[in-house]
Amino acid sequence: MKLIEKIFSVKNENNHKVVRLSGLKLKFKRKINIKIEPKEIKQQNILTDSIKNNYFLHFTHNNFYQNNNQNDTFNNFISFRYDYIDTPSQYGVNLGDYVQSIATLNLIKKLYPDNNIINFDRDNLGNYDNVPAYTIMQGWFSNSYTFLPNNRITPVYVGTHITPWALNNIFKFLRYNPSYFKNETIGCRDKQTQEYFTKLGIPNYLSRCLTLTFPKREVLATQNKIFLVNLPDEIFEKLPPDIKNNAEIINQRIIDANHEDIYYYNSYDKYIEQTNLLLNKYKTEAKLVITPALHCASPCIAMGIPVILLENKDNQNRLTTLDGIIKKYSHDDFMNNAVDYEPEPINIEDLKEAIIKNLELSINIKKGLEVDRNNLKEIRRYIQEYNIL
Fold this sequence. Notes:
Layout: H1 2-7, E1 8-13, E2 16-21, E3 24-28, H2 39-63, E4 76-81, H3 95-111, E5 116-121, E6 133-136, E7 139-141, E8 153-156, E9 160-162, H4 164-176, E10 186-188, H5 191-199, E11 204-206, E12 225-229, H6 233-237, H7 241-244, E13 248-250, H8 268-285, E14 286-291, H9 294-303, E15 307-310, E16 328-329, H10 331-335, H11 349-366, H12 373-385
Parallel strand pairs: 4-5, 4-6, 6-8, 7-9, 10-11, 12-13, 12-14, 14-15, 15-16
Antiparallel strand pairs: 1-2, 2-3
C-alpha cells in the first residue's frame, strides 16, 4: 500500500483536489471521487460480466442445431409452465401466462386427441432433456439465456413474442448458429415481433395470439357484472359513477404466490386451476370487461364478452395483435369522456377458424406431412390482414 501511495495519491490543498500520479501533479477545482478497487475484486467483476455475457453463446454453440422434422416425436407436446426464482413473498404470478398455456393446451387436445403433454419451463427450453417433443412457441420470450429450444424439441412458431433483450441475444446466437432458423417462418404474435424478425432477415407473418381461439360462450342470466381488470387508478376515477360504484376489481397480472402454502409456489397445476376459475368467472358472470391487459381482453373477445380496451405506452406494441378487431381507447379518451361504455360483443368466429387451421397446418409441416403451401399462405394472409373495424 505504501508503494501505491508513492505512485498515486489524492489530497486536499486549498479547497482543491490534487492528484499525483507518478510525479505528475493535477489540480481540480471541482470535487471528484476516486475509488481504488483491489485488483482481485476488479478481476472478479470482469469475470462475472464475461460469464453473464458469454454463457448464452457458449451454451447455444454446444447444444443447438438446425431443427429438422422429427417424426419420432409422435404426439408429445410441451406445455409451458413458468418457474420463478424469487421467493413467493417477493414475486406474484401473472395468470396471463397461464391463459396462453390453457389456450394452447385446448388446441392441442382438439387437434391431436391422442397426445402426451409434458410440462416444462418456458425460459429453459435449451435445457430440456425429456423425450423428443413439439412445442408451440406461443408466448413471451424471454429474459433468459436458454429460451431457444434445443435439439430434443421441434418448435412450431405461432403466437411468438420476443422482447428487445431476446432480440439482442438471438442476434448474437445467430453469429454462431446461422442456420438455426433455416426453413422457418415465424408466426409473430404482434407487429413489433414481426419487425424484429425482419431485422434478423427471418421470414415472418402476423399469426396473432392463440388466446383469440377460446370458444364462444352461451348467454346466461348470470352475466350481469362489470369487471375492471388491471385498470389504472386515474382511469378508474374517470369512469361513470354507475360503472365505478358497481364494478368488481380484478388484478390478473400479479396473483399472490401464497407464501404460506409452499405447495402453491411454482405449482403448475395450482395456477392452471386458478386461471381456469378466472376465465370461467369472465365467461359466466361478465356483461362488460374494461382492461389494458392483452390476455384478459383477448380471451374475453373470443368468448363474446363486450370489452373496452385501454391502450397505453406500456402495452401498445403487444396490442397490435388485436389490430382490426377492436377499437382501442387512449388515456386521453377516458379523461375526455370519449369512450363508448356500451360496446357490442365482437364476432371473430371466422378469424378463430383461420388461426386454428394455421396452427394445424404448421404442426403438420413439422411432422413431415404433406401440406398445401398455397392454401397455408392464403390462410396466413387472411389472419394478418383481418379487419372488421
